[in-house]
Design goal:
This protein is of the alpha+beta class. The protein has 9 helices and 20 strands.
């Protein structure tokens, strides 16, 4: 074989390998989920942070420009959707619909103008838009409209509440989960503290980054990224209660009327019994994570190492309670949020958010050790069956139950207290090989 032939063969092999590599890259890009964000300047503010968090795993695209009101969406939605594939569409309209405009369509003072899209027409428009979006085949996420503060000039403070209520009716009717940024932002004081600008609907970069965190979680949940990633399995991802049953009842028994799935969230209705819910599966060593929100004065909990052989003391409770409420002012520390209920207290200075805001909790059970986490901080660690635990149990109402505080393989339980509680993003991970 001549040198020229060798060179020709080498070039052909290189070309083939380069072509294969290019095809592999194209296939990888094709396999990456595509996410479309539709929204106004609030979404324009948080989209760069969403891209920074997710662009290594998926393609994030914001529809061109400021997508303004539902009227804008009706006029341009087809162009925004294009002809490509979208796996998730995270969308919002509202702040422009409720603003006041003059005869030329420009923003003006409330006393001189009219709302661009009155709330009744807004609800109708949203229904039309959602039905078109559903035809795309994408997983849809509605994003509630963030609060309108005092002093904006062209909007009435609080007017977004009626628009969000109208949107929620549409989303419930169409089965679309809700990313409730309005609830996440919360009160005027909370809004300013997180980066909301005064007398302005917009946010500082820090505020936009905080909003982006919620958007990232919603997109990950829609794609199932958190479930299945590094061994995580969703126990509740927003769609239903498969894998759960009432305590003491056989698999397949539906939850009581006190539990409902609303807008992608699990709600424990106030004053309506639903029964304690437990996972059908039992767990030995595990990591459990969930997010929760209480009504003012609310009380609830998540139990682990749950057994149906001891109904009077089924498991060990991670307490969730409105610590700041006067209703609970006399509670001992071992009955407050993140405690091993009435057995061991959490650390002082725990990072608890007030009622009405979302908290993130975590329980880690490895061997004979257990950890309680709250909003990213470990606040309690103990050893099952230790002298410390036995002393706490002996001083509690659980003293009459032999073995309470010992390690056992059991269910996870969401308890049924009468107070309103919301849950989301409940997931669990067992050690590899389980």
């Amino acid at each position: 074989m001549t040198g020229m032939q060798n060179k020709t063969i080498r070039l052909a092999v290189c070309a083939a390998m380069a072509g294969w590599a290019l095809c592999a890259l194209c296939a990888q890009a094709e396999a990456r989920p595509r996410v479309l964000i539709i929204g106004d300047s609030i979404s324009i503010g948080y989209t760069p942070f969403v891209k920074a968090a997710l662009s290594n795993r998926m393609e994030i695209v914001h529809a061109p420009g400021n997508n303004q009101a539902t009227a804008t969406g009706l006029a341009h939605l087809e162009a925004w959707l294009g002809t490509g594939r979208w796996d998730v569409i995270h969308f919002n309209w509202g702040l422009h619909d409720l603003k006041y405009i003059d005869g030329q369509g420009k923003g003006t003072s409330v006393s001189k103008g009219r709302q661009w899209v009155p709330v009744e027409q807004y609800e109708t428009n949203l229904g039309t838009l959602v039905r078109r979006l559903k035809k795309s085949g994408a997983r849809l996420i509605w994003c509630s409209t963030t609060p309108v503060p005092e002093g904006t000039g062209i909007r009435i403070a609080g007017s977004e509440v009626a628009y969000n209520a109208a949107a929620l009716r549409v989303m419930r009717a169409e089965g679309v989960p809700v990313n409730d940024l309005h609830a996440f932002v919360g009160s005027p004081g909370r809004r300013l503290a997180m980066g909301g600008r005064p007398r302005d609907v917009h946010y500082t970069p820090a505020g936009s980054e905080a909003l982006a965190g919620e958007v990232v979680r919603a997109i990950e949940a829609a794609l199932g990224c958190r479930a299945g990633q590094d061994g995580w399995v969703a126990l509740f991802g927003g769609a239903g209660l498969a894998g759960w049953r009432p305590y003491g009842k056989p698999a397949g028994t539906p939850p009581g009327e006190g539990w409902s799935v609303e807008g992608g969230l699990l709600r424990k209705k106030p004053g309506i019994r639903g029964g304690d819910l437990i996972t059908e599966k039992q767990y030995g060593d595990f990591e459990l994570e969930w997010e929760w929100r209480l009504s003012p004065g609310g009380n609830n909990g998540v139990k682990y190492c749950v057994t149906e052989a001891r109904p009077g003391a089924p498991g060990y409770e991670y307490q969730m309670i409105d610590d700041l409420s006067e209703k609970w002012a006399k509670l001992p520390e071992n009955a407050r949020t993140a405690s091993f209920y009435v057995v061991l207290p959490p650390a002082a200075g725990k990072p608890l958010k007030p009622a009405g805001e979302w908290n993130a909790s975590r329980i880690v059970v490895r061997g004979d050790r257990c950890e309680h986490w709250l909003n990213g901080r470990k606040v309690l660690e103990y050893v099952f069956g230790s002298a410390e635990v036995k002393a706490g149990v002996a001083a509690s109402k659980f003293a009459k139950y032999p073995g309470f505080g010992d390690k056992l393989t059991g269910h996870i339980m969401l308890t049924d207290h009468t107070d309103e509680t919301w849950f989301r993003s409940i997931r669990i991970r067992e050690p590899a090989g389980r």
